[in-house]
Amino acid sequence: WWSQTEEQVLDAMSDSEDEPSQDKQLKVTLIGDGTAGKTSICAKLSQNSFNKQYDQTLGLDFFLKRFELPGNVVATLQVWDIGGQQLGGGMLETYLYGANVICLVYDMTNYSTFENLQDWLSTVKKHLGEKLPHLALLGNKSDLEHLRTVRREKHTEFAAANKMSSYFLSARSGDNVNLCFQRIAADALNIRLSKQ
Fold first, then answer.
1. pLDDT tens digits for the chain (196 residues)?
2. Which end of the chain is more exposed for a tag (fewer CB within 10 A), N or C?
3. Residue 138 and residue 78: Cα distance in Å, rounded?
4. CA 185 and chain centroid, separation
């Protein structure tokens, strides 16, 4: 009942090797104040779920997400969700070490989470020096536009001043979550995505 010869099997295997996929692993670290929505973003990204109950992340959580990118590249994002209380913590340097991307996350409806990003960024620079990985600014809770306290201009100015890519997303609705991280992966790997 098995009709393929060994030669046909080897031919089929060699055909698939003509265009091997390139597996790339990226460490993506999310930092920012507690309540900014980092864990909710990660849960929406990796499991397409949203928990309305707030549970503070103590220390660190990991999430995985794979994206297929142009050029037959498969990017696996290892997303590190850092608890908001870690700003002054001794483990933060360890969590940041080796990151390909650092995402600074704030809650668009809570101005203090945006103001505190400068402290988070200063801490990143203190630990990593001048050779920073790709930085991204994520304004979360875009579904609550009517409650926004951080003007778009402030977001855009902060991102530009610190050479960050810039995104608005909603962990609750899922709006822009996958697209944001797909673009972040592409940027970190210098892969151009077509406009969508």
1. 344 444 444 444 444 445 567 899 999 999 999 889 888 898 888 876 445 454 554 456 788 899 999 999 999 999 988 876 656 666 778 888 899 999 999 999 999 999 999 999 999 999 898 889 999 999 999 999 999 999 999 999 999 999 999 999 999 888 989 999 999 999 999 999 876 5
2. N
3. 17
4. 8
Beta bridge partners of 79: 28, 63
DSSP conformation letters of 145-190: GGG--S-HHHHHHHHHHTT-EEEE--TTT-TTHHHHHHHHHHHHTT
186 vs 67, 156, 172, 174, CA distance in Å? 9, 20, 24, 20
- DSSP E strand boundaries for the chain: 22-31, 60-69, 73-82, 101-107, 134-140, 165-168
Between CA 193 and CA 196 the distance in angstroms is 8
CA 104 to chain centre: 9
Cβ atoms of 70 and 43 within 8 Å: the answer is no
Report the relative pairing of strands 165-168 and 134-140 from DSSP bridges: parallel
pTM given for the model: 0.82
